[in-house]
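Researcher: I'd like a structural prediction for the single chain below. Treat it as a standalone chain; there are no partners to consider.
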Amino acid sequence: MGFSIKPLPSYKFWIILSVSLFVFSVLSLCVYRLFLTYTDTTSNQAPLPTEFLFRQLRYYALEIPLLEEAIYRGVFCVCLRSVFGFKTTIIVSGILFALLHFIYRNPGIDNILGGFFLSWAFLISKSLLVPFLFHSVGNSLYLFFIAVN
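Model: Treating it as a single chain, here is the predicted structure.
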């Protein structure tokens, strides 16, 4: 478990799920931007430099997901799964993931739910590739969200 390139149940399943989550995220961002447009009167901030954005993109979309997925899914989930059941593994791994983000002063419902979702995705797919890609896209959307605001 964890080192397969071909995820289970199928590529089609993960592509449909990915597209659905992406559409939901984009729609959520659009609704949020509309809300800010009509309520925010202090949007005179300078845009972020492109070089800064590319460094942040590399860090948030590649380095962090690679490290966190290797630790939380590749080590914790595999060890927990050998001792506990499916649901307990998801809960414990998700709590550990959320706790790390809380310790590093990045608490949020997205990190709490993300930990559970990424653990579930790993256990279902039996591949680190799936949670890595979800984590990478999620962090990229977050960076885009910051850049747009």
